[in-house]
Specification:
Blueprint lengths: L4 E5 L6 E2 L15 E5 L1 H4 L4 H11 L15 H4 L18 E3 L1 H7 L3 E6 L9 H17 L6 E5 L3 H13 L3 E6 L5 H9 L3 E5 L3 H11 L5 E3 L5 H7 L1 H9 L7 E5 L4 H15 L8 E7 L4 H7 L26 H10 L3 E5 L1 H12 L7 H15 L8 E6 L7 H8 L21 H10 L5
Parallel strand pairs: 5-13, 6-7, 6-9, 7-8, 10-11, 10-13, 11-12
Antiparallel strand pairs: 1-2, 1-3, 4-5
Length: 443
């Protein structure tokens, strides 16, 4: 069976392109592009046959199908030659049963999808494997691409640098100066990328990289490129697969540039169209209050959209005031009866710390999603019996300084509710025993 996919204008004007064309917008109307699949051949297999295939491939040693992305190759990028696939065994991340935190909130069925348990420590690996693989095929087919470039708040740059380094394609990274963590900054540096630290914010970096990639020799790797979305949509497929092919009631995720909302929707809608699932979960997008254009548009029923100047937020990866995937994300939210919530710096920091005390180790962006969860539970939108999945986008180890400063009470606009600094004592057994006893630990 021959499977196929192509680019199509999101505005429905009818313009299409090959996924191997160097193009990021519709050349007729300026709309963003989405990857569309030929559904007819996909329907030649029954839902049970697809489930069996994907379950059998899960973590197999047969390249490239052991990857959580490429195990769904027919649904992602079917016409790509296997020898051009650049994979680091991404996906298959833990669905963490947040039992203790759920009990505190009065929820029976709370889970956290640990997308940060990946090669470079974030969900961005899922999209980057697809994009870099397509570029490698384009180069193999003779296209004169010399480098891949992105603007980033940290995680995209890490993923691009690693995957490009694996195959030996130069990467160019534009970062906002002093607005990413040290751990995120050192990742692309270590992988040999050309790293440019610009005196601007992410939106300023994004503007420059779009100008830079008008040169067809420099390929754009940001999520306005819908190849990234195709890889990231496998998060939705994997969640459903981990629940024995039953969708949850809610999925909550932090949103910035809004590519992840688009990806989540595409994965779920494809499963429904192919009969894998018979209902859709509700989606909740969570924004930091200091960078909240999507939330403000939601409050106006998406009838208006005004970019904002993003203020400095602890959730630095979503410190974005003009998200490029807005148009695609709005379509998803309307189809999924979605909601958008905003969270203050105090709320996101304390939500992170509260979750950590139940065994997690969350990044501040996951804290934004958790803060939104707390609000939705408090006002009764999420019910006790609902199965809820919070998407954790990055590994907490990328943001250790944020956690250190929280427990030192050094974060601006944050009053720690769960501080736990180390107790510094002389090396005296009696004093140690006495201190532990005062804290309620007695023999």
């Amino acid at each position: 069976m021959k499977y196929d996919c192509w680019y199509e204008c999101v505005r429905g004007c009818g313009r299409t392109y090959s996924i191997f064309d160097v193009v990021y917008h519709c050349e007729d109307c300026g709309g963003l592009l989405v990857v569309e699949h030929d559904i007819k051949p996909l329907k030649h297999r029954t839902p049970d046959e697809w489930k069996e295939i994907f379950d059998r491939r899960t973590q197999t040693h047969i390249f490239p199908y052991g990857s959580g992305v490429w195990g769904k190759k027919e649904w992602v990028c079917p016409q790509l030659d296997d020898e051009n696939i650049i994979s680091m065994y991404e996906g298959h991340t833990n669905l963490f049963w947040a039992k203790r935190l759920g009990e505190e909130l009065g929820l029976d069925d709370l889970w956290v999808k640990m997308c940060g348990n990946s090669h470079t420590g974030s969900f961005k690996d899922l999209g980057m494997t697809v994009l870099v693989s397509v570029v490698q095929q384009m180069i193999s087919d003779g296209k004169p691409i010399k480098a891949i470039a992105c603007a980033s708040t940290g995680d995209t740059s890490a993923a691009l640098a690693a995957y490009a380094a694996w195959v030996g394609i130069p990467s160019v990274i534009l970062l906002p100066h002093a607005k990413v963590s040290t751990e995120q900054l050192i990742q692309p540096i270590s992988n040999g990328a050309i790293v440019l630290s610009l005196d601007t914010d992410f939106d300023g970096c994004m503007k420059i990289v779009q100008e830079l990639t008008t040169d067809p020799a420099i390929y754009l790797a940001n999520s306005m490129n819908s190849l990234r979305i195709e890889g990231q949509k496998t998060v939705a497929i994997e969640i459903v697969q981990q629940f024995e092919w039953e969708p949850p009631d809610w999925i909550i995720l932090p949103v910035g540039n809004l590519g992840n909302v688009s990806a989540l929707g595409r994965g779920l809608l494809l499963m429904k169209e192919l009969g894998i699932i018979d209902r859709l979960p509700r989606i909740a997008g969570a924004q930091a209050k200091k960078a909240n254009p999507f939330y403000l548009s939601y409050k106006e029923k998406f009838e208006t959209y005004v970019p904002v100047t993003a203020q400095k937020t602890l959730a630095s990866a979503i410190q974005i005031g003009n998200p490029v995937s807005y148009e695609r994300a709005v379509k998803v939210m309307k189809e999924f009866d979605g909601v958008v919530e905003q969270v203050s710096e105090d709320e996101l920091a304390n939500a992170t710390a509260r979750a950590d005390r139940s065994g997690l180790y969350c990044c501040p962006h996951t804290g934004v999603a958790l803060g939104a969860l707390f609000k939705l539970v408090e006002r009764g939108e999420i019910k006790k019996q609902d199965r809820v999945v919070v998407i954790s986008t990055a590994h907490g180890l990328k943001f250790s300084q944020f956690k250190v400063e929280y427990h030192r009470n050094n974060l601006e606009d944050v009053t720690p509710l769960y501080p736990n600094p180390p107790l510094e004592l002389p090396a005296d057994y009696a004093l140690v025993q006495e201190t532990i006893a005062k804290l309620g630990i007695k023999g």
